[in-house]
Write a structure and sequence with these properties.
Elements (H helix, E strand, L loop, with lengths): L1 E2 H7 L5 H9 L3 E3 L2 E2 L6 E2 L5 E3 L2 E2 L8 E6 L27 E2 L8 E7 L2 H8 L7 E8 L4 H9 L1 E3 L2 E3 L3 E8 L4 E8 L6 H7 L5 E9 L2 E2 L8 E3 L2 H8 L2
Parallel strand pairs: 9-15
Antiparallel strand pairs: 1-4, 2-3, 2-5, 5-6, 7-9, 7-17, 8-9, 10-14, 10-15, 11-12, 13-14, 15-16
Helix pairs in contact: 1-2
Amino acid sequence: MERLQKVIANSGYTSRRKAEDLITRGQVKVNGKIINELGVKVHSTDIIEVEGNVLAKNERKVYYLLNKPRGVICSVHDDKNRKTVVSLIPCEERIYPVGRLDYDTTGLLLLTNDGILANKLMHPKNKIEKTYIAKIEGILTPSEFYHLKKGIVIEGREVIPTHLKIRKTNEENSSQIVEISIIEGRNHIIKKIFESFHHPVSKLKREAYAFLSLGNLQSGEYRQLTLKEVKKLYNL
């Protein structure tokens, strides 16, 4: 038996924190009975309803790697009717993104209905490395580059890139293409890093997530992960 909020989160319906909120607000039923207390444990045979939706049992687990285009929301649905990453992948299973990329950020994004793996990948203790290509305004000075490489403090916490490289410098329009890898998962962290040096990010793309890369995928294209890749993600 497992805690109700964990079962809901692992189903892919929502996060564990949101599941706890739904439980305390009386939006969850188990075998037709409203449950509004945290800590209740359920059996695999129990029928669980969340906001009137019955959670699917024994759903086939699927895993996708998407090259997210600019102007697409990292969400299952959007109240402003904007295009979501889920709408780009036609499948019967209820999938959702692992983590987030900003509306104007492109690149590698994982989507799945495997809540256990998703929670594992997003947990800070597992320190998943992510590699980004940032186009910044202005040019990093040697001092700024080495300062960043050594690590900087953003909102009270230190960020140390695991990899940092200048890919291209354009003196004519005063811009630079920078490759940076981090294990951070905070919102807008790459943009905040460069803004702290007064170099706003004009374009941002995630090129790699752990050992996974975009390969030949064009913007908006996707592929399913292989069994070997899924096992490797579980072992990170």
